[in-house]
Amino acid sequence: MQLYALDQNLTVIHAKNAKKHVSYQCLECKSFVRLRGGIHRQNHFYHVYQSSSCKQSGKSMEHLQVQLFLQKELDCKDLHLEKRFDEIGRIADVVSFSKKLVFEVQCSPISLEEVKSRNLDYQKLGLSVIWILHEKNFNQSKVSAVEDFLQSTHHYFTNMDANGLGVIYDQFDLFDKGKRIFSSKPFIIDVKQFFQNDYIIKNLTLPSPLLQKISSQPYFFKGDIIDYCKSEQFSQITFIQALKIIESRKPKKITIPLFLLQLFKRYIMRPYRIFLNILLEKATL
Fold first, then answer.
1. For the whole model, what pTM was predicted?
2. Residue spans per domain, the chain
3. Alpha helices (H) along the chain
């Protein structure tokens, strides 16, 4: 489902201006779409014949609600939903040319190759991508390859439902062997307030992955982790558990006495125990 389609004159039309029982064309695959919606359901286009290869066809109502939420909150004159870029063959969920940002909403599973490809394509146009991952398939105990890749880049989560209720939030995580072993509290972001990141890191006691994330991001939004770390509300308690986990996983330094003890156990105590067990087994025969 989608919010935009092409009319009979190949002009882009919004679902709110379309008519039911009239055929339109999908912006991506050019197949027939029609209008659906009503008093209790957001107007949108649906594919008359489903296409597994068309990304617009696979959009959920939650996906559309996140797009509409961003449109309302960002309130930019140059903001576009489902903007087609013919030069790279992409349709951006939400794009702001003044901010040079593309918001890619992801509610369904996606391959790491596709994420990398989209990032590179938009970078060719001078646009940065902010991924918004839905809790339906992300932020679970098992970590996807996509989340692992995006850990040090800009991404947020959302729990927006089909009725448009929910938030977009930031979160700091620690991963280990494909598992999420630590999650901070959610930091609800205000997408209306967007800033360039000129934050000078003074608190070096932050978890190292968080320090890397802060130093690598060129911008941030009000309420996200970067904003929290530079605010007066910052509290070290938020990351104490993460710091303990990181410290516990550091390789322990082996001192000379400890090294000698390990040699004693391996080359003297262990052979002695084996020999003793053999003698006991023979004595019981």
1. 0.75
2. 1-57, 60-248, 252-285
3. 61-74, 112-124, 145-150, 208-216, 225-229, 240-248, 256-264, 270-283
